[in-house]
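Progress note, sequence design subtask.
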């Protein structure tokens, strides 16, 4: 394989979903919903396919989707972007993250990120020849540790790679925490690449604050999101980046030779989704909040300590009370032994010791699936 990728091996999602399928397990591992999203969005894709929109879309994305992304940023956050020069459509958030790293980093440049981190972050930084510097968020409160965050910055810091709401912890960064990140980025003249794919999956009284909305940050921030989570269409791979024109042009220069473009008929469908009324977005969060409570309740009844997530569709639990000493080994055996798929949080860490007995479970599943997952896990108590 590619030398820069050698330390990463096979992504945990591939490994765990294959094991779950092999053992016909209840898959609470890889995060994807088991029901479809808004019917208007699905109908728009069918219509686009029937209407012959099956050839290459424009490389930067269809003008209409770029307009819809800009309208969405303004409607929800008051952030204004020029659709023609400041919005770029990508093949999911995954491609956006990769092209941002490839475009912004020179070999040896450092990227500050919180740990645990979404697994593609470390791999794409490595592909770009960058070096990651991490600050650990610790179970169960996952609070930002200011001293360790400061220590992660240096005169080689080029990018801060942020993710809020945060996978795998479900943490929604507070405005104060984001202000700290922003002030350090300004101090070190760094770009912030912020992955906000779970922007609409926020619960209780938590609010998603886009980093670009903080004073002085729009000009140094690239904001990434995706239709996959918001419209329950993870297989469509329609993502986007918003940011200053010069940076967006630099990402496009890379992107044109990675994929050029993709997901032609799904681009108008996601544009239709982004224009749905506020209630549709709120309805998704509302439905997921009830599922969160259902899974958290089940895990607590088993005697597990749970970090209650205020965003995303993941919950982290400590399975030490089940006699587990290494959650990675435990998760590898779980589909066969209990018929459940789960993700070890250590997969998102450089230092596995920080998450030895922690597992991530997804709750974007039908209630009866969550109940069956809990029932099966409870047989291990
Ligand atoms: N970032 C985070 C934090 C994610 O959880 C995911 C999806 N699992 C992605 C990026 C990738 O998004 P997409 O499917 O749109 O490529
Ligand atoms: N984002 C999903 C998760 O965290 C998985 C994405 C993938 O399979 N690469 O579960």
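Output:
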């Amino acid at each position: 394989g590619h030398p820069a990728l050698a330390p990463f091996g096979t992504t945990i999602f591939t490994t765990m979903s294959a094991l779950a399928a092999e053992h016909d397990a209840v898959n609470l591992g890889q995060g994807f919903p088991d029901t479809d999203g808004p019917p208007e969005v699905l109908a728009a894709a069918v219509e686009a396919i029937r209407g012959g929109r099956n050839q290459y879309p424009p490389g930067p994305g269809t003008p209409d989707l770029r307009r819809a992304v800009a309208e969405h940023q303004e409607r929800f956050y008051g952030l204004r972007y020029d659709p023609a020069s400041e919005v770029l459509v990508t093949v999911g958030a995954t491609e956006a993250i990769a092209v941002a790293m490839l475009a912004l980093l020179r070999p040896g440049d450092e990227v500050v990120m919180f740990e645990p981190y979404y697994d593609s972050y470390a791999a794409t930084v490595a592909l770009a020849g960058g070096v990651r510097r991490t600050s650990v968020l610790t179970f169960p409160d996952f609070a930002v540790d200011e001293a360790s965050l400061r220590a992660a910055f240096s005169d080689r810091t080029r990018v801060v790679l942020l993710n809020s709401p945060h996978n795998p912890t479900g943490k929604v960064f507070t405005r104060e925490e984001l202000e700290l990140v922003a002030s350090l980025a300004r101090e070190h003249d760094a770009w912030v690449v912020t992955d906000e794919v779970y922007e609409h999956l926020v619960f209780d009284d938590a609010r998603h604050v886009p980093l670009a909305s903080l004073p002085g940050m729009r000009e140094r921030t690239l904001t990434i999101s995706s239709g996959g989570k918001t419209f329950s269409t993870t297989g469509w791979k329609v993502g986007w980046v918003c940011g200053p024109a010069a940076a967006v042009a630099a990402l496009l220069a890379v992107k044109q030779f990675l994929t050029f473009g993709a997901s032609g008929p799904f681009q108008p469908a996601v544009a239709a989704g982004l224009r749905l009324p506020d209630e549709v977005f709120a309805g998704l969060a509302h439905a997921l909040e009830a599922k969160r409570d259902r899974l958290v309740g089940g895990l607590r009844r088993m005697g597990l300590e749970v970090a209650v997530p205020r965003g995303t569709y993941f919950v982290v639990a400590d399975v030490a009370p089940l006699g587990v000493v290494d959650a990675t080994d435990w998760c590898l055996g779980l589909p066969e032994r209990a018929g459940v798929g789960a993700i070890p949080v250590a997969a998102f860490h450089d230092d596995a010791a920080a998450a030895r007995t922690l597992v991530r479970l997804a709750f974007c599943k039908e209630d009866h699936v969550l109940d069956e997952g809990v029932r099966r896990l409870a047989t291990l108590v």
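The domain at 39-276 is CATH 3.40.640.10 (Aspartate Aminotransferase; domain 2). Work on this subtask will continue into the next period as scheduled.
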